[in-house]
Amino acid sequence: MMPELRQDWLSGQWVVFSPERLRRPQQFSFGEAQESSPEGDPFAEGNEHYTPAEVYAVRSRGGQANGPGWSVRVVPNRYPALRVEGEMKRKAVGLFDQASGVGAHEVVIETPKSDKELAELSLNQISEVLETYRYRMLDLMKDQRLRHVSIFKNVGARAGASLRHAHSQIVALPLVPPEVERRLDVAEEHFQKKERNLFQDVLDFELGDENRIVLQNHDFVAFCPYASRFPFEVRVLPRHQHCHYFSSPDGALVQLAEILKKILLAYQIGLNRPAYNILYQTAPLPGRFTGKWPLMESSYRWYVEIIPRIFGLAGFELSTQCAMNAVFPEEAARFLRETIDSLPEGGEHE
Predict the structure, then answer these.
(1) Are 166 and 117 within 8 A, CB to CB?
(2) Which residues, in sequence order, are CB contacts of 342 under 8 Å at separation 6+?
(3) Are strands 323-325 and 213-216 parallel, antiparallel or unpaired?
(4) Which pLDDT belongs to residue 11?
(5) pLDDT at 16
(6) Distance in angstroms (rounded) separating the CA atoms of residues 283 and 143
(7) Which one of 88, 126, 150, 285 is least enclosed by Cβ atoms within 10 Å?
(8) HEC states along the chain?
């Protein structure tokens, strides 16, 4: 198969597909050796004294705050990128801009168990994690200094994880990151020119083509993007228009839990547990902007990216800012579909 260049619909980034650089997906074995032990694990149930005091927890089994009995627990990051304390100030430093490092950096501990991955939790447990993101966003939104909330999950050393225990992170920023601004601009321009939502246009195209669809349910569609930057990258788009993650209707996050579980199990089984990142791409917090993105509610739609970290960046990617991918998304989607179809009923895998 000949190499091919494709341009991403949202970022405008070019991706070079070079399948000759890789073996067939059926032969992949990309996983990292992972060990786990509750001894000394600061996130394990019973070791709550190792972490800062919790700011939120799901305690269906009862129990006191900062003690056992929880199923999901949120604590401030012990080594935060940003801190809640302090006054928000901005100033010029010569030709440069400087702002106070005000914000929030929280860790969502997804399970009390040291040896469980997100994919191995029940749908109810995964839903509790997803609902926790929503609760924390709504709480952080009360702080008018904050403008954007980033939610992400790193698994494996190649993806940036320093602890094995299943967890994710929430970082609230006093600014909108440039990449988020650019996405909003692209979506707004598309809506102004064509009076259509860009995300819905892409969803309609992918559903019509079908070759890159991995799986779908009532509320979400998961597909390998046409210009996938990474092998087996998956995007999950809601079928219904909401620009903010926390605006998802009741019950929708259960549907997202089903999608995530099956895709992550497919990574485990088909790709031998690779490192990966999950990114929740939501709009900036509402009420902070005056006229910058007047059509944001209609033009932007939150979505999820799931990115296996099979290879690192090399000289070509760094020098050109073009991605290079050895697996066409059509082949990746087919492989993931077949792997998901092989799962026992209910998507469970032991």
Answers:
(1) yes
(2) 269
(3) unpaired
(4) 74
(5) 67
(6) 16
(7) 88
(8) CCCEEEECCCCCCEEEECHHHCCCHHHCCCCCCCCCCCCCCCCCCCCHHHCCCCCEEECCCCCCCCCCCCCEEEEECCCCCCECCCCCCEEEECCEEEECCECEEEEEECCCCCCCCHHHCCHHHHHHHHHHHHHHHHHHCCCCCCCEEEEEEEECHHHCCCCCCCEEEEEEECCCCHHHHHHHHHHHHHHHHHCCCHHHHHHHHHHHHCCCEEEECCCEEEECCCCCCCCCCEEEEECCCCCCHHHCCCCHHHHHHHHHHHHHHHHHHHHCCCCEEEEEECCCCCCCCCCCCCCHHHHCCCEEEEEECCCCCCHHHHHHCCEEECCCHHHHHHHHHHHHHCCCCCCCCC
pLDDT band, very low/low/confident/very high, at 194 (cuts 50, 70, 90): very high
Alpha-carbon span 56 to 133, nearest angstrom: 10
Give the C-alpha separation, 138 to 156, whole Å.
29
Q: Report CA Rg, the chain.
A: 20
How many whole angstroms separate alpha carbon 255 and alpha carbon 125? 13
Residues 6+ apart with CB under 8 A from 236: 220, 221, 222, 256, 259, 260, 263, 303, 304, 305, 306
Output the pTM of the full model.
0.90
Which tokens in the block code for residue 234?
Answer: 């998956």
Average pLDDT score over residue span 262-288: 95
Q: Which residues pair with 151 in a beta bridge?
A: 170, 280
| Tokens 């219904």 belong to residue | 240
Q: Side chain identity at 177, as an amino acid letter?
A: P
More confident residue, 129 or 163: 129
For 155, 225, 244, the CA distances from 253, given in Å and listed in that order, are 21, 22, 13
